[in-house]
């Protein structure tokens, strides 16, 4: 299956239907989110940021990409945790003048280009930069994300595309970006997902829910495990995949995986003492035992 291609450029477009967009509006929208999220919402504008919303114990309820659209702040997150995220935010909204709605008028769309570009992808000839695009987000030199109006997306004739979704997920893994999905809410600390290394945690912004736990871990340097990128020979089931040493001792777990038959790349939470050791395996009931090949991330882990 090929991506939807434009005749006027070398860009390919694919809707990211697994995402939902949450709109926060009202006079208290920024101050409310500032007290809830790991990033400095006051710095969010045309330049967006990854971030997360945590519980009081510092565990990540939802991860997101945030940007300003008009006077509002929009968070893009996985659709399968959307209900959980909404409930968690609304728990604290009772005393704030802020409205939270599902942003159905916008759709996240991936743009894949053949040639690397610094900021903007080559756009389809019918797309007008100001009128049709609410936000542009660069994931890599050849992959961008657009928030298009639903009307414009329909005009382009974009349809659900398995290849586009696979390419998008593969890019996130290559970039070392983990996203909270179904079954992972309130399990991980932000630092376990390397969020502090991709700008998804601001340690200078002040108080927010879970901040005390997150800051203490950061300044005392007690974290003994980090997210790593690996490759194995065949696809795996994330629900049952564990990293083990040669003696069968668990040293980590799979977090995100490419969609493919193999070889496939994964993001895994791994004990630091096991990283780069030769005899580390991914044990999974369906696929059996597969030896891990360590891959680099695009950022350094201290």
List the helices and strands and how they pair.
Layout: E1 4-5, E2 11-15, E3 19-25, H1 29-34, E4 49-54, E5 60-69, E6 72-78, H2 82-90, E7 99-102, E8 106-113, H3 129-132, E9 133-138, E10 143-149, H4 150-155, H5 162-174, H6 211-220, E11 225-232, E12 242-245, E13 250-257, E14 264-271, E15 280-284, E16 288-291, E17 293-295
Antiparallel strand pairs: 1-2, 2-8, 3-6, 3-7, 4-5, 5-6, 8-10, 9-10, 11-14, 11-17, 12-13, 12-15, 13-14, 15-16
Brief summary:
With 302 residues, the chain is of the alpha+beta class. It has helices at residues 29-34, 82-90, 129-132, 150-155, 162-174, 211-220, and strands spanning 4-5, 11-15, 19-25, 49-54, 60-69, 72-78, 99-102, 106-113, 133-138, 143-149, 225-232, 242-245, 250-257, 264-271, 280-284, 288-291, 293-295.
């Amino acid at each position: 299956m090929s991506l939807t291609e434009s005749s006027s450029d070398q860009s390919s477009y694919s809707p990211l239907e697994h995402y939902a967009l949450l709109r926060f509006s009202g006079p208290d929208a920024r101050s409310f989110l500032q007290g809830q999220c790991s990033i400095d919402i006051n710095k969010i504008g045309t330049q967006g940021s990854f971030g997360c919303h945590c519980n009081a114990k510092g565990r990540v309820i939802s991860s997101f990409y945030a940007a300003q659209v008009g006077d509002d702040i929009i968070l893009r997150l996985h659709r399968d945790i959307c209900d959980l995220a909404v409930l968690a935010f609304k728990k604290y909204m009772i005393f704030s003048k802020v409205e939270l709605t599902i942003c159905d008028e916008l759709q996240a769309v991936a743009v894949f280009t053949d040639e690397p570009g610094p900021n903007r992808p080559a756009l389809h000839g019918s797309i007008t930069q100001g009128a049709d695009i609410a936000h542009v987000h660069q994931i890599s030199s050849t992959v961008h994300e657009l928030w298009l109006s639903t009307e414009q997306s329909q005009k382009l004739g974009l349809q659900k595309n398995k290849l586009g979704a696979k390419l998008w997920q593969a890019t996130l893994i290559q970039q070392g970006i983990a996203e909270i999905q179904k079954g992972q809410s309130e399990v991980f600390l932000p630092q376990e997902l390397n969020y502090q290394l991709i700008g998804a945690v601001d340690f200078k912004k002040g108080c927010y829910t879970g901040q005390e736990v997150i800051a203490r871990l950061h300044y005392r340097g007690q974290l003994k495990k980090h997210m790593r990128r690996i490759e194995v020979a065949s696809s795996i089931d994330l629900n049952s995949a564990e990293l083990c040493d040669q003696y069968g001792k668990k040293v980590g777990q799979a977090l995100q995986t490419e969609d493919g038959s193999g070889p496939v790349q994964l993001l895994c939470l791994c004990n630091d003492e096991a990283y780069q050791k030769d005899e580390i395996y991914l044990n999974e009931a369906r696929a059996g035992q597969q030896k891990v090949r360590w891959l680099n991330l695009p950022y350094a882990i201290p």
